[in-house]
Amino acid sequence: MAVRGRMTLPGAAVAAAAAVILGGLLRGTYPFGSQGRNILDLRQQFIPMHAYLRDLITGGVPGDFFFNWSSGYGVPYIGDFMAYNGAALSWIVLLFPRDKIDLALYVIMLAAIAAAAAAMTAYLRKLRPNAPGWLAALAGVSYATCGWALDDGGYMTGWLYGLIAFPLICLLCEWTRTKRTVVPMLVAPFVIALFWYSHFYTVYMATLGAGLVLIARVLSDPDGGSWWNRFTGALRCLVVVVIGIALSAPLLVPTFKSVGYARPSPDETFHPIGWLSFLGRLLPASEGVGQTPGLAIGTVLLLAALSFPFNQRIVRRERIVWSVVVLLTLSSMQLRITHEIWHGFDAPNGNPFRQAFIVAGMCVITGWLSLAAGVRNVLAVAVPVVLVSALYGAAFGASSTTAVTHVVVPVMVVVTALVWAAWRWRPSDLVSRVAAAVLVVAVLAEVAASTYAVDQARGERYTAAQPWGPKQAQARALVLSAQDWPRQRVSPGAFSTVNDPMLIGGQGPEYYSSTIPDELSDELINLGFGVSAFGRAVVDPVNPVIDATFSVGARLRADDQGELYLTRSPASPFVTVRPGKTWISANPGAFGLQETALGADVYAIPKLTVTPAVGSRLAISDRRPGLLTIALPAGAPAPAEFRLAGRCTPGSQLYLSGPRFAGEALVNGQWTSLLPPQGKRLGTYIGALMSAGPADANGAFDLRLRTSVSTQLPVGAIGCLDRGKLDKAIARLGQSQPAAVHVGGHSIDVKLTPGTTGRVVMGVVPTPGWRCQVDGQTARKPTQVGGLMAVTVGPRATEVTCAYRPAGLRLGLLVGAAALLSLLGVAALLILRERRSSTPPPPVDQGTVR
């Protein structure tokens, strides 16, 4: 089955990327047509995060690699860097203008797929160097464009670094295991550290997968030598992996700390899916993002992998060991305990099969071993064809299969069988070359068709946002025109994404990240902010008291036609000096905490009269302290309406607080939701404080609400804001600012007016990692006033310095230094050993022959 010619590693990379590009061209997906590809986390997280990274590198934002001043009124950044854009490929954004950030992410995806194809090709060539190189490249392409890469990795760009890491860690282990010199021991740990820097989450899975491959190789390698030789080789691999992970500790440990401080995920119980749905994803062009595992590796490699156990040209022990390892790994995806191990004992809320690329990679490896040995016996061909045909028939009507699946599977089975027959019975050079060309074209065409089908099916399920365009350009221009940090913040809103402060610019509260500090999320919720995604995405209440408190002096808004414009309003300074005894509001809930943070009484909380609408069967009770329980009996007509009536000072602006109210309020003639329809899922959403219009000329109000489920409101659900009092409070705070304020990348330096006493209050929530000093004294954890960071100063104080340092940074540096010393020690021992083994023994003195 040998064919002359070789497809190089660059050839594999180019072929994989070209096939994916062709799929996009066929469907007309960005950047080749009007079909958008920005769905889910690609739109909301990866594109904004990479835009921020570009700004950070080029000096376009006030933060640094420790702290991000743009989002959430100030949030730690190192966790986001590691989770979203810490890989070397992320720096590709520097090659593109900022308004082509969507194109940069597309190129990053292509580069990652290309790199994965080259990496797998290199590993396969290492396993069987005498087999056809072009065939190894074809297998590498099949791995890099597996169902997981096209379906999940297509919009979760950061996950693709695990796709690259798996074959490369396998290759490094193979190199270290077989070449017992100092060079592999010195090089491999740094490469592994680089991957753990890139995306520790999927690289952790890749490392586990590489460990399973190592076990299979140690047990089955026909050229592995003695069992002692196999054991010591595996030990060398284990040493370089452990040292490599430890070398990444300077960033890894702070990241783990930030994850520990982050908003916790809700408890998830893993439930296996039906085996037909599970195995049906082995078929090409199948789609099931977030629900089923993307196991597809193309029809040719699937047939080859299934031929492996029956290929008599492979040593029996190798067939048994690899078959057992692959089957156990496949089964581990359906078992709860192994599911938790794969995910680091933190079961994800989304796709529970994020490790599917490991199984896909193992199937490619076994398929390659079979192809490299030569598939000669008919049984090794017939059984895979029967199995794939049976799976095709059983899964034909499954939700994950597409119209493309229905076509490509039988076509590819026939093509593969014909190519095999040509090699088997007509092994001339011409026939072999033609058969090889047919196979290459067929595989790449199948990848392009799968890309098209997956993209189309995903587009039908999720709404895709359009790339950067005139609206985003206008928004950025408006935001930059008002930029005056740190004297004031500019809030860009969330007109494009929930991470618009990163994508558009400015310093708003919007922020969506898996590493959002739990303390920040809690404080913002208490102040009247809403959240989604289990508290990981902040929803801005657009409230003047919040704006004044956090120094938001300009805000991007949209009119009824969607046209953007900028509004300006007075706001307090970023740093103020307040009396030593903190004034605490007596008002309940978010209204009271806002007043405490502002330092002034600006709300009135009226007594409410609650009246169900005529004919409504709602039962409303205030028996629970602080809560209005609104019960809708089963079978009652929905939605059911009721009214909140009361009186406040004429001219007051009404604000409605309903963090758990799953319903709507009639504001300015339109029904407006406090929570989306999914809001009844406890903890997923919390409603933001909402403007409910003005009171009438007599101060009276009668607010209509409606709901379709049993829900609740706080007793003090309405706050009446007195704008006159607010303006006076802002003016008073403006007079209390210190002599000078300098805000660095992750620090705040305050020069005090002589004789100042009281509390220095800063417009940032004190997340873990902040430490403050007064006149160079011992750094201490700051206190807070209404959720704002605060430091008490005496009359002789002249300066206050606060700095953020990621928790775990010192420990990470120590571990990294210890790993480097250990690596140098191991290298020194190996060099010494090599020198001793290469030094010839001294000549033997034969004495004088007498």
Features of this protein?
single chain, 850 residues, alpha+beta, 4-stranded antiparallel β-sheet, 26 helices, 27 strands, disordered N terminus
Kindly describe this structure.
The N and C termini lie far apart (69 Å). Residues 1-6 have low confidence and may be disordered. The chain contains 26 helices and 27 strands. The chain is globular. The longest helix has 33 residues, at 429-461. A hairpin with a 5-residue loop joins β11 (619-621) and β12. It has a 5-stranded antiparallel sheet with strand order 10-13-18-15-16, with no helix packed on it. The protein has a 4-stranded antiparallel sheet with strand order 8-23-26-25, with no helix packed on it. Strands 9-20-14-17 form a 4-stranded antiparallel sheet. It is an alpha+beta fold.
Task: Give the SSE layout.
Blueprint: H1 9-27, H2 40-58, E1 67-68, E2 75-76, H3 78-84, H4 101-127, H5 133-144, H6 147-151, H7 160-178, H8 182-198, H9 200-220, H10 227-247, H11 249-261, H12 275-279, H13 299-307, H14 316-332, H15 336-342, H16 356-373, H17 379-394, H18 403-425, H19 429-461, H20 470-481, E3 489-491, H21 500-503, H22 518-526, E4 530-532, E5 537-539, H23 544-549, E6 552-558, E7 564-568, E8 575-578, H24 589-598, E9 603-604, E10 609-612, E11 619-621, E12 627-631, E13 640-647, E14 653-656, E15 663-667, E16 670-673, E17 690-694, E18 700-707, E19 711-714, E20 718-721, H25 723-734, E21 740-743, E22 747-751, E23 758-762, E24 770-774, E25 783-785, E26 788-793, E27 799-804, H26 809-838
Parallel strand pairs: 3-6
Antiparallel strand pairs: 1-2, 4-5, 6-7, 8-23, 9-20, 10-13, 11-12, 12-19, 13-18, 14-17, 14-20, 15-16, 15-18, 21-22, 22-27, 23-26, 24-27, 25-26
